[in-house]
């Protein structure tokens, strides 16, 4: 059994954001009904603040993240999938909240 998560670029940014009543970091796309946050390929050097607390999947691939700070995912109790592919990560500081991530995708890290 599996599922497919598709984050496509077919909708205009305004159309995607209008469905989101919760906060969404600037330059990210939040999909409220699926609880997905797409922050990929945005040039972030740190995990953005203001992520919705109900986020289930957080896509941070293709950014310029080098260090994942201790409090990067604080308050994201629903987070189950974290995608950190194609970043410049050199250090992931201890994260108490990361213990509950059964599917942590961290391919192509320089750790």
From TrEMBL:
It holds the Pfam family LRR_8. Keywords: Leucine-rich repeat, Repeat, Signal. InterPro entries: Leu-rich_rpt (IPR001611), LRR_dom_sf (IPR032675), LRR_TM_domain-containing (IPR050541). The keyword Endoplasmic reticulum does not apply. GO terms for cellular component: plasma membrane. The keyword Signal applies. SUPFAM superfamilies: L domain-like. This is LRRNT domain-containing protein. It comes from Stegastes partitus (bicolor damselfish).
